[in-house]
Design goal:
The chain is α+β, with helices and mostly antiparallel strands and 108 residues long. It has a domain of 70 residues: Gyrase A, domain 2 (2-Layer Sandwich), CATH 3.30.1360.20. Helix content is 37%, strand content 19%. The protein has three helices and four strands; from the N terminus they run αββαββα. A four-stranded antiparallel beta sheet has the order 1-2-4-3, covered by helices on one side. A hairpin with a 2-residue loop joins strand 1 and strand 2. The longest helix has 18 residues. It is globular and about 40 Å long. Pfam families: Pterin_4a.
């Protein structure tokens, strides 16, 4: 399954993914981790300008997908946390948005 080709679906009424599905999807996202009911990763940057450029790009993706992460923004790093609060855990939407977030920093 190519997460980048998918779009988020409405969240209301979704159930959390099964643990084996979470593990399978997590394997496609380097350095992402599960903490409780959240999918998270810390991104590091050279300076504040790069940090904010990443945050703004991620905000655009979140708006387009209508699935918004919790962010902790610092001078040279951002902690990104995805979770589907309505479902009480992780759904496919979280992994779709994590993959699209990851694509922001892919370098050739």
């Amino acid at each position: 399954m190519n997460l980048l080709e998918l779009s988020c679906t409405p969240q209301h009424g979704q159930s959390p993914l099964a643990d084996n599905t979470v593990k399978q999807l997590l394997s496609s996202l380097p350095e992402w981790q599960i903490a409780g009911i959240e999918l998270n990763k810390t991104y590091r940057f050279a300076n504040y300008h790069e940090t904010m450029a990443f945050v703004n790009a991620l905000a655009w993706i979140a708006h387009q997908e209508d699935h918004h992460p919790d962010l902790s923004v610092h001078y040279n790093r951002v902690v990104v946390n995805f979770s589907t609060h309505d479902a009480g855990g992780l759904t496919l939407n979280d992994f779709i948005c994590a993959a699209k977030t990851e694509a922001l920093i892919k370098r050739p």
